[in-house]
Design brief:
The chain is α/β, with parallel strands linked by helices and 494 residues long. It is built from 16 helices and 18 strands. 37% of the residues lie in helices and 20% in strands. The longest helix is centred in the first third of the chain and has 22 residues.
């Protein structure tokens, strides 16, 4: 996949000058060995120039890891640590940072070998708050070399997401469609988390598309599409125009990314798109998303943002779906009840017109967009990719700015069931434990729109830390509470 951040982590050990420096030196070596033995040497760098005990050491270490090309930082407390210098290091490092502490003591050496890093982590966290510095601190941030190595490995997807967001531009085309106020959210929070946005007219896009007519690269893209679709290529006559549109978007990205490394797109797809372009963009959206360039439907800017976060965390294609309709009672009785441990209220159908990558569908066919074709000529609604979404674990999530400009998010683990949908579009039968209550007391109560991002696997732990890191208040991160645990807005009498 392209458009994906890579992280190189610089590990800097620190020491309080009243402790033996050798504690931090040896523990840093143990940590690096434990990490490279298990995870390899790629993407990690051991800062050798000094153990940070002072502000001068901090400057030396900062210069060294920058020179080494590190874009993520691990501050490792081999002992108590210098609370001022270590937090100044984090302050002046421009990238995601993590703090962990050593627990390398032996019961036979608790005099000269006692490091007190358990205590030092408290002071480090206090000083981080004094300086308003955001840093990732694991659930239990103290451990031996192997345990700390695992913590660093868990930090990697979080660091990728933060690095990506620090260098992301979202490109949008057109205003939200009529009656889609739910997709219209204040963009101030994008700037607050370091994301740039470029808003364009769909007329600008149409002009660029027309300029790509006859582009010599079109046949190669059509061939790619034919190979991808195989027997599902039911609308071959539309592929050249879809290829022309794909090249238009890719060229726009290169011409407009500016100083930003990564891009996501919030695209227009109706109501005038079909009649003017002569197709719907769903399949192209799915192809770009599969290549690492998330494209949201219906100019859903925070949907595109959510997709990007999920893409870099999972290193895989994601999709954006409507939390669409309940599973019919007869389908539940015939295909789910007794086979899977879910009530009917735990299940629902996720749907979108045809934007899900082909590799995330059990089967796929290029078709026309049925909903649009109810009011428009069928020939201008071609370009969707229909099929049932592959069964397996998923994470349903979204990052959103509310109408009053509060940053809010939700995360829920679930799965796509191997149940035939008997429907149309990119669609699946989803199951999330206690979905009915989650739907009412997180999604509805939180004022979320109908679009939710889907990552293919369980990534809630990393997403939760990413949302915390970028400043989403913990109380504003919703998740599906287990049975017996009441939501604040839930009626105690049922």
């Amino acid at each position: 996949m392209s458009n994906m951040p890579e992280v190189k982590i610089g590990v800097v050990a620190v020491s309080r000058d009243c402790f033996p420096e050798s504690l931090s030196v040896n523990r840093r070596k143990n940590l690096i060995k434990a990490y490279t033995d298990k995870y390899g040497t790629e993407g990690i760098y051991e800062c050798p120039v000094c153990i940070v005990e002072s502000e001068i050491h901090m400057v030396q270490a900062l210069s060294d890891i920058k020179k080494a090309g590190c874009n993520a930082l691990v501050v490792y407390l081999g002992n108590f640590g210098p609370e001022i210098s270590e937090t100044l290091l984090a302050k002046h490092f421009d990238g995601p940072k993590m703090f962990i502490a050593a627990a390398e003591e032996s019961g036979d050496n608790l005099v000269q070998g006692r490091g007190d890093a358990y205590c030092g982590m408290l002071n480090a966290s206090y000083n981080l708050k004094l300086r308003n510095i955001r840093a990732y601190i694991p659930e239990y941030p103290v451990g031996d070399a192997k345990e700390c190595a695992d913590m660093i490995h868990e930090f990697i997807p979080i660091a990728r997401a933060i690095e990506g967001l620090n260098n992301l531009k979202i490109i949008s085309f057109g205003p939200r469609p009529l009656n889609f106020l739910a997709c219209n959210a204040p963009i101030k929070q994008l700037y607050n988390i370091g994301v740039e946005i470029e808003e364009n007219s769909e007329l600008d896009l149409f002009e660029a598309f027309n300029k790509h007519e006859g582009d010599e690269r079109i046949p190669a893209i059509v061939k790619e599409m034919e190979e991808e679709l195989g027997a599902g290529n039911k609308k071959p006559e539309i592929l050249a125009r879809l290829a022309q549109y794909e090249l238009t978007l890719k060229d726009w990205i290169e011409a407009h990314r500016g100083y930003r490394k990564y891009v996501a797109i919030a695209g227009k797809c109706w109501p005038a798109f079909q009649t003017q372009f002569g197709f719907v963009p769903c399949y192209v959206n799915s192809r770009l998303t599969a290549q690492g360039i998330p494209v949201s439907c219906e100019v859903d800017i925070y949907g595109a943002l959510s997709e990007f976060i999920g893409t870099v965390v999972s290193e895989d294609a994601v999709t954006l779906l409507d939390i669409n309709n309940t599973v019919p009672k007869d389908m539940y009785e015939n295909d789910i009840k007794g086979r899977y441990d879910y009530s009917q209220k735990d299940t629902f159908m996720g749907f979108h017109c045809g934007n899900t990558a082909s590799k995330k569908l059990s089967f796929c066919e290029m078709k026309y967009q049925m909903i649009m074709a109810r009011t428009l000529p069928e020939e201008v609604t071609q370009g969707t990719l229909e099929g049932d979404i592959i069964p397996g674990n998923i994470t349903f999530y979204r990052l959103q700015s509310t109408a009053d400009n509060i940053l809010r998010a939700y995360i829920a683990h679930g799965e796509v069931l191997p149940v035939a949908t008997k429907s149309f579009g990119s669609v699946g039968v989803f199951a999330i434990p206690e979905m009915g209550r989650f739907y009412r007391h997180v999604l509805i109560e939180g004022g979320y729109p109908h679009h939710g991002a889907v990552a293919f696997g369980h990534f809630g732990k990393a997403l939760f830390e990413v949302f915390k890191y970028i400043g989403v208040p913990v109380e504003e991160i919703g998740y599906n509470q287990p049975a017996g645990v009441r939501y604040p807005t839930e009626n105690p009498w049922g």
